[in-house]
């Protein structure tokens, strides 16, 4: 039987929420949505596989609801879980801090014991710096989305990314 997937996100102006809804609609029987602003993070413990969505705000900072629940997150034991990340940012407006919060989230869940799966190539993006890059600088640690400047790319990016995530979860 396919393992169930918890998709946890938070969103200040609705962009991450909209993408979370899109992802859930692609696999409605398997993905269960949780808005961290309403439910917090504790239910992450119930799932073997997690998708986490985070926008970056205020020059490289965590979105406010993620920030509020950060200590609770750091106290979770996520060992044995597979986690895929998606981040939202604005590469033109905030290119020195593009998707930084996704990088912070990657480090946090790894220190909670999770295995982060599915990197995403940097080609097709233009930015000065990002804390969400892999060590070699060739990839992001999760799916990179920019609803401010590249909204038209999002659907195709999701279609390319989600099957890779499912394959990594089911491996
Ligand atoms: C005041 C402000 C600060 C922002 N800071 C960053 C940033 O540092 N890095 C980044 O990549 N995007 C930044 N963004 C862009 C947001 O991450 C982007 O608009 C995102 O889609 C918002 O997602 P949400 O609607 O789910 O909150 C910023 C946007 C605003 C309005």
Automatic annotation (TrEMBL):
InterPro entries: Flavodoxin (IPR050619), Flavodoxin/NO_synth (IPR008254), Flavodoxin_CS (IPR001226), Flavodoxin_lc (IPR010086), Flavoprotein-like_sf (IPR029039). Residues 5-166 form the Flavodoxin-like domain. Keywords: Electron transport, Flavoprotein, FMN, Transport. Its cofactor is FMN. Transmembrane segments: none annotated. Belongs to the flavodoxin family. Low-potential electron donor to a number of redox enzymes. This is Flavodoxin. It comes from Marinobacterium maritimum.
């Amino acid at each position: 039987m396919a393992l169930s997937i918890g998709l946890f996100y938070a969103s200040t102006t609705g962009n991450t929420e909209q993408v979370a809804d899109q992802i859930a609609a692609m696999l409605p029987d398997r993905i269960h949505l949780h808005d961290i602003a309403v439910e917090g993070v504790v239910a992450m413990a119930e799932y073997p596989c997690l998708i986490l969505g985070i926008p970056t705000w205020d020059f490289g900072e965590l979105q406010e609801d993620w920030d509020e629940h950060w200590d609770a997150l750091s106290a979770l034991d996520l060992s044995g879980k597979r986690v895929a990340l998606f981040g939202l940012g604005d590469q033109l407006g905030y290119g020195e801090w593009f998707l930084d919060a996704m990088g912070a989230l990657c480090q946090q869940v790894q220190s909670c014991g999770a295995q982060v799966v599915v990197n995403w190539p940097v080609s097709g993006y233009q930015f000065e710096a990002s804390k969400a890059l892999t060590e070699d600088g060739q990839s992001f640690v999760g799916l990179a989305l920019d609803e401010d400047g590249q909204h038209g790319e999002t659907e195709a990016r999701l279609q390319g990314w989600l099957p890779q995530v499912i394959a990594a979860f089911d491996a």
